[in-house]
Amino acid sequence: MPFSTGATGATGATGATGATGATGATGATGAGGGVGGRGFTPGESYAVTTARDGIMGRWAGPNRNVSAYTAGEAGNMSEWPVWARGYVIQSDLLAGMVFETAPKDGIDFQVSHLGAGILTEGKTTYESEPLFSFRRPRIEDFKEQLDYVNTYAELRMDRSAEILSQTGYPEHFFGVILGLHPSRTKYSLELMATAQLFATGIAQRVKHALACKRPDMFSSQIQPMIPMPGHGTLPSGHATEAFTVARVMSLLIDDRDIEFGIQDQLMHQAERISINRTIAGVHFPADSIAGAMLGLGLGEYFVARGRGLGPGAAGPYTETTSNFISTAHFDGTVVGNEDFRMRTLFDKGQRQSLDAAGRRIVELGAKVNVVTATECLPLTWLWEKAKAEWPDRRAADM
Amino acid sequence: MTQFEWEHRPEISERTFESPYVIWYEKFGQRFEAGYPGEPVNQQPFWIKDTSNVAATKSGDPAAALDGIRITSVQPWDPDTDGSLIPPEPWHRAPLRPESVPQNYDHLAAAPSPGLAKPQQDKQLVIVAVVDDATNFAHHRFQGANKTSRVDYAWVMDGKPKDPAAPTVPFGREWSNAEIEHVLKSSDSEDAVLKELELADFAQNETIGLTKRISHGTHVMDLACGYEPEDEDGQDRRIISVQLPRRVILEASGSILHLFVKAAIRYIEARAREIARALGQGSVPLVVNFSYGLGAGSRLGSHPVEKCFAEITDAGDSNDSVNPVHVVLPAGNRFRADGHAALIADHNGQHQLELDWMLPAQDQSPNFLEIWLPGTALDRTIELVPPNARFGAAALIQEKGGYLELVDSDSKKGVAWAAADVELDAQRNRVGKIRLLLAIAPTYVPRLEPPFAPAGVWKIRVSATLRTNDDICAWIQRDEPPYGYRRPGQPSRLLNHQESRAQKIDNEISEYVNWFAKSGRVTGYGTLNGIATAESMIVVAGYRWRDASCASYSSAGSDSVRSPDMAAISDRSRVLGGVLAAGSRSAVKVALNGTSVAVPQVVNALTQALVNSLAFGGSDTVSSLNLGALVINTESDHNQNKINWLRGRDTRLTAEGGGVAEQMERSGFRA
Q: pTM score, two decimals?
């Protein structure tokens, strides 16, 4: 499972209210902390057993008033622990997605969503709609990028505090912008953690498929300042996760395109987090370009799924609403010596295509309806809870 | 065990002052060049000459003087036929990158127009020129309202010419006021601005000062002439910025610095006239900030860099459109660098200066020591004993008599050289001093062929017959890279045996204020910046604001070396070092210390005095101006205990400006 960083997993189930962390976001899903992390010590277990012996008396059969939950109801989510909710949403999201390796020429890997099914003669068939596709850079393309890893290394000392703080999920860096709090905005924190986790899952799957080698495989002089992660380099996990979070949280709270506004700050923070990885020596700028493209798209997709605009759902259903999101294709074979800059991929409140010297590095395509066969009602539940925490929200009504 | 032997080489150089370094570099120094991370890339040798003359700048056309600087990539002499590796006059070697050098033009194109100068009512417009490195001249502190720029001209010497067929400067890229404003208005982020102006581009694979949070030139320029865009006082100043090539400032010996400083001065003069001409209202004063220092030099005011500045500060013609001209330099930060020793003769006769020069191990940069003797000294001998050697070598010092080379017996290659030359005392127009330059190879450079110089203590004995009050001085050339750059190499130092351990501790605690000048020993007195000794310069020392005590690193004069003129704040307190001013990016504030940051504060105060007074001129501007809070006149201080210098108990300090707190208030310095 994609809990590969697990940096704060030790706080496990209590993380959401985390005395240990101002935002404690990852604790909400107990990432890396195994399952839950709540338990009795052996001594307590023994003690409870001996006490039961003492007080139980003779077995009396069912003696409590009990009624059933309604099966499958989204509202039941409030009954479950935070970490379990994370798995529920993750499973629902992934159940509506399809991964294809080399589906056609010019595409090495593709992430699609599973469309609404068509019932014919008692059988439901599903069609998938491509969303995000990748053509990986060749070795010679990565070689062209390598100079940047050296030049950016000049800033290692300048950025060392940030880089070391950002080795796990950098939730505090978004928390300070938005004013998150483990009590007052606990569902927003949970939403953020869930989005992060989702992004990690997709990013790891794409990394596996594209199988791109890290900068230290190209030069012995990279000598990164943090341990080189074992998984592939492109797309950058940090870039994907950071941009997913930035997009989701701006759509949650305030996505106005104003100078120095919330969306501006979130996007710049995501950019800085991504660039810090190049400075540290563990990524090429191209990894951040691919990661940002994927992250921004996944953020919109995540929110669209959460709106629950499946067939029969309430709400408008037209091409202009947010359940239609643009496809995106990353062509690593033309990335050349292009550096990573957020404004080339997200500007004026929208995702952008990236052209450089006549080459299409990132191409946004037609808008696609991401209504899927599987509604993600648990995510809708969480989305509505999180929205309610922001009485002053200024996002387009999503 | 490697053996070294001194050998005498009879070659003669006819070149003047800078020749020992040039000889050393051309014949030996290149052997020790090894790559290091972040070094300037794509450097190639060019040759530069300046065919203009001083007269052209003062009464003629300074633009023609700038045009007189020519660069060629074709070696302008043939070492085989000429028999010499040294470029002949007037050529000098200059490492530059090819894309910075336009070569196919007849004359420089006309200068762009300056921006619109709008000094306030009854205020004199003043031009402030800052020559430095890593200067973000598009920073908001150098803007006027609405993204206008107060910078009229910016020369980025490392840049690419806009139009190589019709350049406006002999190399690099000039940015006009209109171009800077266009970039400011059409870019949506500072990253884009810096990239467009070629100031900070990560595609350039080398260390660039402006990519860091703190950059020397931006900080200095902010202190000198930075104002918030809405602040009307900013309009009384127009700015010229010159950024020296990175390869030049990284050259530790300073041997190529003067070529580029000369070009910068020519440029500043030419462009200052454009500004004055556009204003059309009589003379416009010019204040030049040059926050840079060298460790070695004669301190006679005749270093080539000093001569460049003297050309423009010499008492000018009051009809001159740019007048008066002041140049402000730092006193230097080498008071505690253990880089200077002096011996003052107390009687006529034989004297001997003994030095222990400690070269660190694993030192990848060469080390230079200059020993200066009076031209009238007789029977001059030097003995140089490498570490662990059983014998030294004594040789007569003769000017123009060739040089000594310490040769490794196995490889027959040299690891140390000694050469002598004579420097004219330009200020007093007579033969001044004789310099002996000791150049020692690095003690180790990975991946280079040995031999290297042995690390450890090199013993030097200089003896001569002197008259009373003559002196023998020694200075180590500064070996630290400029702020923000990494260049491998350790500084060397002179060991001071005359201080007991107890004295050393005492000095640390009292921060060296009790460290008197004494003859024949390593001392901090006389460590003044080697290029800040000309009479016409304003030289600024540093002090600590909180208790008005001298900055412990601030260099001082001595009996034979001039003292700084005044001091400004270089640290806020014992705990809070440095002074706050602009960081590389707009709206960022950072702390930087050193006498480098004291200089622009004096530039600012001086500029303000000139702005306020429409009827000033003449060479006595410094003492006649009531500069008030920031500056303390220390004319005859060099004989006094440093502790009285700036303690507030100094009556001149009190008389001029009241207590320290009031002074700070007046200078605008808030706690």
A: 0.82
